[in-house]
């Protein structure tokens, strides 16, 4: 019998993100092992055996942390959760989908359809959120993948060089490279042909691209970990500064979870046991702050967002496609590079826009059947499909981003 947990894990694999990520790992690992064993560094030598074991070790550790991040998951706020003290509810946002309050540092993920503890972001490559429980394994994957790709790249380059050394004159007489592997006797059973060269060159491109892209993500993750933040919390902190500057309130926002030491912040995520500190609901805070300092700031930003929202009316139909061909060349080529949804519009729909780009806007479509505070569809839509609702023309404020762009 197959349990529901196994089916859910299998469904996580049925997504383009894991398919591409695992394909890259498989191509780079298999090609590096084949190149090392057949052509560059044979297994009958001590160095070749150690090299092969290292390649195998990289693959195992990368896959272990990858699947740990995917299947362990970030941890979710229990359905129906409320704080121990009922009066603390006034400091928290309420999630209508999960029918519970959002614990400090938690956010609702539309793709997971749950409130995620210490949510950093939803990663398409693992088809899951990165958060409280899997932040360490996800970051280790981001570290190990570039290191493994660097090792594999060295194998690819040396294999192609040693195998082509006697066929093509590079004119590199001053380069000192040990050619013992290329000149060994007897020659390899399988000759290094055009197909092997093409495969090694293709794998080299994948490895170098992965090293750069994933390495940059690792640097970003380490920056937020060493300040004990998440990517979302870094964004909230920036918005807090903008809000204070915009209204000239004279407030000073202090991020409450920075322990003041990079090592202490590091230990909040990475522990010897592999289990992160805390329970994902209550967090240690620095002096001068309390457990709800961040959530109070979020409530202020949410209220500010409502004040600065602008109501628009749809003047054209929009199907909700990612890159609409019929809405102009500029709209087509400037579609937002994000996994956030698009919302379909019909002529006459009302939308509350909260932020905008030059040719696109993001907002909430007010459903005709929804009362105040009802369910709203949120997403991006082309700016040319809407016009400002005339009833609010005297009271509306500029959409976030427009004031700074002028």
Automatic annotation (TrEMBL):
GO molecular function: protein-cysteine S-palmitoyltransferase activity
Keyword Lipid biosynthesis: no
Taxonomy, superkingdom: Eukaryota
Residue span, SH3 domain: 307-391
Any single Gene Ontology cellular-component annotation: membrane
Localization terms from the record: Membrane
Transmembrane annotation, as ranges: 20-41, 61-81, 140-161, 189-220
Its EC number(s): 2.3.1.225
Keyword terms, alphabetized: Acyltransferase, Membrane, SH3 domain, Transferase, Transmembrane, Transmembrane helix
InterPro entries named in the record: Palmitoyltrfase_DHHC, PFA4/ZDH16/20/ERF2-like, SH3_domain
Comment on protein domains: The DHHC domain is required for palmitoyltransferase activity.
Family as reported in the entry's similarity comment: Belongs to the DHHC palmitoyltransferase family.
PANTHER family in the record: PALMITOYLTRANSFERASE ZDHHC16
Protein name as catalogued: Palmitoyltransferase
